[in-house]
Each structure stands twice: as C-alpha cells, then as structure tokens.
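Example 3.2
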Amino acid sequence: MARNAQEAALALHRFGFGPRAGLIEGIADDPRGALIAELDRPGAGQITNPDLPTSGAANRAVFEYNAERNANQKRPRPDAAMEAAPAKSEAVPLPRQLFRNEARARIDAALNAEIGFVERLVWFWSNHFCVNQEKTVMAGAYEREAIRPHVLGRFADMLLAAEGHPAMLLYLDNAQSIGPDSVAGINRDKGLNENLAREILELHTLGVRTVYAQDDVTNFAKVLTGWTIRQTASDPDHGGEFVFIKRMHEPGPETVIGKEYDEAGTEQGRAVLADLAGHPATAEHVSTKLARHFIADDPPPVLVKRLTQRFLDTDGDLKEVTRTLIASPEAWEPQQAKIKRPGEWIVAALRATGETGEIGRIIQAGNLLGEPLWRPPAPKGFSDENAAWLDGLAQRLDMANAFAHREGLALEPKAIMETALGPLASAETRQTIARAESRPEALTLLLMAPEFQRR
C-alpha cells in the first residue's frame, strides 16, 4: 500500500491537478486504473453549461454591445442641469463578463474533476491549437467547441475543428486571406495571407523544419482561401460563424507535400488537413509534445517512439495514445522533473485547501505569473519547458504568501500537507512546516515546497 500511495500521489500531481482531501488514499489501490477510468467516464472533458453562448452568439452579442456603446457616446450631450447629475457607472462590460464566465467554467471543471487528467489534456491541446482572447472574444467558446469534443477522439477531427473555427480564422488572419487569382482577388486587388497555413504545418501538424518547403506553405494558403466568417454587420443572425466564400478561393489544383489536390471548395482544404493529420512527422511531433508536457523537457526517445507508433497504428486515436502514455514505465519515474505551469499550480493550491477562489483573483494571478488565460505570447502557445517558468517562482512566493494570509488562518497546515503531498513530502519539507511560526507561514512554505511546485 505504501508504494501504491506514493504512486497515487505522483499520479495526481503529474497527470491531474493535484490531490483533494482523501484522494491519495482513494486511488491508492490502483492509481493507473483510476487514470484510465477517468478517460472512460461518459462526457469526460465536456462543459455543458446552457448559460455559456456559442462562439457565434458571443461574437454577435459583443458586436451589438460595442455598436450601442459607440452610439451612446456620439449622442448629443444632455443640458447643463442633467450634466450636473452623477453619471451612472457601467456594470462589468459585456466582453469582460463573457470572458469571466468562460474562465469560471474552465476553473470549476478542473477543481471539480476527480483527478483532472482529462482536463489537463484539454489544457494541453488548447495550448497546442491556441488562439488569443485579445484578437477574438470567442476563445473560451472555441475551447468548448473545437477542443473538448475531440480531446479523446481522433486528432484529424480536432485538427479540422480547430483550423476551421472562426476564432482560429480570425487569430491567424485567414478570414482576410484572398486568392490572388480568385474573383475577389482580381476585383479587389487583395492578396494571400500565409499565417494559418504556416502555423498548421510548423506548429499544429508536421513540426518545424520537417518535410515541407516554402512552396508548400504558399500552396496550402491558397487552398485555405475562402475559409472565412460571416460578417455580423450584414448578417445579424449568423455573424461570426464559419462560411466558405467561393469568390475568395484560389481556383485550380494545388500541390502540398508532393500531392496534388483538385479544387473542390472546402473539400480541398479538408483533404489536405486529413493527410497532414496522418503523416508520420505529425505523429512524432505531437507525441513529443505530449511526452514533454507530462514527463520531461527531454522525454525518453523510447517513450516518444512508442507514442508515435500508437498514433500511427490507431489513425490518431488520442484516447489510445493517452492510454499508451499511462501504460509506459517511463511515465512513472519517481523524480518530479516538470515545474507546474502557473495555472496548474493555482488550481492545485485551491484543490488542496478546498477553496474555490474568486475568478477575478484567479485571472489576475495568471496574468502576474506570466500565463494570462487564453492570451499566449505567440501562435506557438505557452512554453512547456521548465526554463520558461523559473523566473516566475519569486512571484509565486508572493502570491502564496498573500493566499495563505487570506485563507490560511482557519486551515491546519499539517492536514493540508497530508492532503496535498502525503508520501511525496520529504523529511525536510515536513520539518520546515512543523517549525513555521504561524499557520499562514506554514501554508506558504507548503505551497512553495519543491514537491508541490513540481509534478
């Protein structure tokens, strides 16, 4: 049982969002089986909240909100007597409220999950196919619509859902991309935008410097012309939704990675994406990233090879690839080689202490620690390597201290230590917490312990 308890605690930190009260003991009989059971749970990874709007509905609501606000600002000012009256303060602006609602749903899904393994997978794939909240109000809805339904499905389906989603078309500028020889291109003298095509090849599928050349990027960009979104100003019922506009699409066949694809509207792009999804370079690229995220910055080559082969053997079945990860001995090395990303650490602290957190504080904490929610620094997403997060550990100390003084007076640090770390707690950590002069100090030291910072 002792060995299994050690493995259970490791599983909860490495593959989940950290323990909750009694959870180490609860899965100690079969930690690996508990992870697999979470993969098999009906509805795993889904958020079914009817109060959260679709991406198109969010886009339209914000468009109308901004239009009305602009009109109010341009209306004639009231007379002097009315001007003297105090102005009515605006409630939380709609774009911010939509963002906070999506953020709350995401955090709650991680807090309430038994282990959080599937939620960790959602966060991983959402970062792999990242979009940016600053460029589209659809980031939260995009994660619910393009990532969650496919997180345990086929990679090809997730790839198609992500690349054709309005949030991605806006983020990587494909909504404005026009084929040079298309009807719209000739009439409007507008040109091609290669951003989406390049990032699909470099980041989402094949990987940098693999089997493609610049001509493949250009030709693929032509294939994707016409993939755009409906304009809300002219289509108030369906604005912000995907649409294929033939007059923007580059006519004729295109050759991508040595294969010619006939012109066939959206089917031309779908065919290229399907072939990219099944390419051996894609299998190796995404398997390496998956192993790097969960196991080590330099994942064991034998593990990457095993995941890659499983990806190819199952036609990119992500559930089977994930099962292979769990079954691999390399995934269970006792050394905690990875530093938790800020979001993971914040959720782990809340789960350990039984707190739900105020969503504004949680969002601000992510901002301060260098991982602002749905606002990656580049299309590559947030880094999964330890070096990117080392400089932020000092800020984590400040945050842990503030949290401990706000919440820690009523908490028993030794009990939280057993909940959060159990058999992972070293003798040094136990001694440090025992010697703390106050409960808040002890809780701060616990949240900053190496065993809690790492997974």
